[in-house]
Amino acid sequence: MSQFDLLIKNGKLVIPQCGIIEGSIGIRGEKVAAILSPSEEVSAKKEVDISGKYVLPGIIDPHSHPGYPGAPYGSFYEAFGTETTSAAVGGVTTNIHFYRQYGQQPSPYEDFWEIMGKAEERSHVDFGVHLMISTNSQAEPKEYKKYIEEYGVKSFKYSMAYKGAEGKALGITNDVDDAFLYRTFAELSQYPGVIVMVHCESMELLTMLTAPLKAQGRQDLAAWTDGRPDFCEAESVRRILYLAEITNCPAYIVHVTCEAALREIMLHRERSPVEIYAETCTHYLTQTKDSPIGPFGKVNPPLRTQEDIDFLWQGIVDGDIDTVGTDHCHLLKEQKKDIWSAVPGFPGVALLLPLLLSEGVNKGRLSLEEVAELASYNTAKIFGLYPKKGTIEIGSDADFAIVDLDLEKKVNPEMLQGLSDFSLWDGWTLKGWPVLTVLRGEVIMENGKVLNKEGFGKYIKR
Length: 462
Ligand SMILES: [Zn+2]
Description:
Bound molecules: zinc ion
Number of helices: 14
Strand content: 15-25%
Mean pLDDT: 96
Radius of gyration: 21 Å
Shape: globular
């Protein structure tokens, strides 16, 4: 009889592309060693009987911003301790963070390994990075080669917004324009498995449209949305997809917020074989521009309407949306005082899974298999983490989010255990929570309490 290091007994295993099966998981070291039928007798050094709870592959948040400008602990790694604690609370076992150099002269990431080392020392969960590319010196062919071959980075992000004064306010230097993107997409299309990610909003349109609203003295959350309307996003999506098409470069549109933008992606897929992926975020599925959250809800692109929310949920069901992320930023209340001066963004990583379970599964919109695909499997496949991550298979990392679908809890910022002292979902009662998080064969969270030490998480070369 073979002995396992850990046996997760009596679960309902949610296996992407396969379905839900009753059984147990035998783990040796950091890996899944066996998937067993419930009656099978085996020995293990440690057993956890989960009596019929669901086991999803560990959740992967593809979109978070440690070291966000203006946030407390502004360097990339300083807030890793709290923010990855918050990830573990939410069943997230892997983050793919955005790493950006702020300031006047961002360099081609020469200090990459030093920074990743410091991040590893603090991380509770595994992580990879997408590099933010915004200057010509960062976008030289030889630098891309270095990022890809030496650093193991396979995804690069560009922003159509955050230019000029808007960029400056956040300490961002951004030389991205159509020529920059055309050159870059053509270069990166030569690397199999490499993908470009774009924040789509027309800087020119939003600058023009926002100015009069500010001058009128509007202070409501909807004013932020009105300055950056859906066509401002859709126009930018269309332009990016066209550039992706003519350069044959796979692209990933981050944080799709609305019907108009998603329709552009659907149209592209009808006419072009070039792979395009669409991500949305939990806030675009649950909050509107009329939500009573004021400046806390300021984000780019902005919150939209109930009709957009409905369209996005349908897009998930129809497979038009591939992944869901959070755009997690560890901001504080004091940075969100009024709509014009507030720093855009808010925390979200701990609620990625609970919101999909509560608003998706428990409201009859999604199946658990769809959640496992949207929040783990698809993400792992797109970003080169599969089959190490993103599934429950023999040989994969033993990463799981074990879920009680009937558990109800009322959200407050403290329970999320990040640095932020607010949450857009404060006071919401959510039904369906992770009760255990397992990372590489270690139980790292039990009933909201994070058990592992900082430094357990590892940087993943892709
Ligand atoms: Zn973001």
